[in-house]
Amino acid sequence: MSTRLSRGGRLLNRGARVGFTFNGKRMSGFAGDTLASALLANNQMLAGRSFKYHRPRGVVASGAEEPNALMGLGADGTFEPNQRATTQELFEGLASESQNHWPSLDFDVGVVNSRLSRFFPAGFYYKTFMGPRAFWKHIYEPVIRQSAGLGKAPKDRDADRYEHFYAFTDVLVIGGGLAGLTAARAAAEAGAKVLLVEQTAHWGGRTMVDGGKIAGGAAEAHVEALVTALEAMPNVTMRNRCMGAGVYDHGYALAYERLTDHVPGHDGPRHRLWRIRAGQIVTATGAIERPLSFAGNDVPGVMLASAVRDYATNWAVSPGDRTVVVTNNDDAYRTALTLKAAGLSVPVILDARAGGGALADEARAAGIRVENGKGIAKVEGGKRVTGVAICQQAGEGAVLETISCDAVAMSGGWSPVVHLWSHCGGKLTWDETGAMFRPNAAQAPTGADGAPFVIPAGSADGEFSLPAILANARAAGLAAAQRTGATAEAEAAPEATARDETPIEPVWMMPQGAGRELRAKAFLDYQNDVKVSDVMLAAQEGYESVEHAKRYTTLGMATDQGKLSNINGLAVLSQSLNTPIPQVGTTTFRPPYTPISMGAIAGEARGEILQPIRSTPMHA
Question: Does the pTM of the predicted model rise above 0.85?
């Protein structure tokens, strides 16, 4: 079961208990919780139902990439559907409800679709709704309209206020992690006017969870010193709870600030849309961990390894007493060590590679069993994980052993967040060593003068070790400042230590020889119920273009816009076509990065102060 740990929780204020409701049931958390961490602390693993098959879905991530835990929040004039529980801060009286089920979350009649899934493969609607012609008006359209959508549309007039804000700066830095803070300081020290925005309520990003050594001290202390220094600079403006939403031509960018979502009833606008003109833009947007594709990877309790680490470290929440870790890279070992240090059981780490590095040795020294060359054949359980069946990664899924557990932490590697870089024409290159797309510096977004105006930094540029992040981010901030005319020099990046890590081994299907029965239960897009077998069917039916395959299968068309599913889906398509991943290409990244409210788009232009559209006499 998931529960609150008695120790830890760096973001919690245990002295301030907060009451909230979920589907009408009273629950409690602490100040500093997100809705997702509070639900997990109350052993509420089931968070919603998937769109197509109405399969049980639980929290899988800890940030804006979350595809499952979408909630309707508020009531009447403050009701808003499809809000991510992972990004909603908890407050007293928060009313939340799960979506896409009837009559209840635990008992949903729509689950019959899952039983009939063999009759609803990818593209079935293109073949089913063609005829007879009379059926469309009287049968097909009414049924489709009834089942379309996830959340309920608000019925009452929006009770909140919104505003637009115009800002002009030399350098806009998007992302307040270690890389963003470092780039902002370098640009500011060089003399540039800097605007730094961060989508969460806290500075430091993953560094505050994963730690490390910088300048001979703790990485967390270095981050705090950076924040203090930036706050004292007169040429720096810092805004958290402010997401970089989109990058457009001529250095124009949009940012979406959530002002009072965590303190409802507070006087002032709820959301603010920043309309920014910047000379240069630094995208320090970090990276997103990829899931692994194995049968049952959608059962509640199967989570990203980094998310499990986040919940344990930031909010003192254990998704399970016994957590199996499955990975193809070294980073997931950090999760196993974090859980072990918290007093929890890690029965086994399943590493698809032949061997691990220093972190694997640490895990063994901590008494954790490590199995190399192994994977998960399937996850046992329905509404929550009850166990995993272990197999050889190189085989077809023959079960070697079954282990009882109540959570699975999976890691399929990391993908740089390249969305903002790509919004205005930035191109990508495939990094074979890291098994990821990263920004191509030779093909950066360019302005009207033909000069580049966007620079990636840190893990958004494919750098993951502390020394590389610091050097890369400092160079990005300094280059951005110099391009805007600043001439001063920033101080050198501090020394940092890096662990020796064994390279990732791409794993796009687990096990690699999985048969059709296993592939049909391995999910790529959790929200839209797109499976490995669906993408393979699309390739078989001639959909060789990634854009065509996307529309045929609906891969990456959910509200998370493929943040977890796209790379795995591309890889499965490339294998099915026997074509290298770079030649398959990527789908188009479009703004906004995550959904923003319609109210923020409208701003003040509503009600009595609605701005009329003015037209010339010749308009007609």
Answer: yes
